[in-house]
Write a structure and sequence with these properties.
This protein has about 90 residues and is of the alpha+beta class. The protein has helices spanning about 10-15, 35-40, 45-50, 75-85, and strands at about 1-10, 25-30, 55-60, 65-70. The protein is built from four helices and four strands, in the order E-H-E-H-H-E-E-H. The protein has a four-stranded antiparallel beta sheet.
């Protein structure tokens, strides 16, 4: 279970008026412990198994889990990961 979570839209995927959801950007989750964050499984158990390309990218840093849309390319995921690594805590 997440202590807190927030969804966001990235205009590179969905434009300026897109709703904040995983398909349009991603979701940030704060877990109770770093171990709980590391144990987080990427993707949705049913949908991800049926449609592998729809699985989100998963970046973990400390207690933070960042799920990014599977529509992002590797460069965009790397940029999000680099920004996340700059956080302390």
């Amino acid at each position: 279970m997440s202590e807190a979570e927030a969804r966001f839209a990235d205009t590179r995927l969905a434009g300026l008026c897109a709703p904040p959801e995983l398909a349009n950007g991603g979701m940030v989750e704060i877990k109770a412990t770093p171990a709980e964050a590391r144990a987080t499984r990427a993707g949705l158990p049913v949908v991800g198994d049926l449609v592998p390309l729809s699985q989100p990218h998963l970046v973990v840093h400390g207690r933070i889990v960042l799920r990014l849309s599977g529509r992002f390319n590797d460069e965009a995921v790397d940029r999000y990961a680099a920004a996340l690594r700059k956080l302390r805590g």
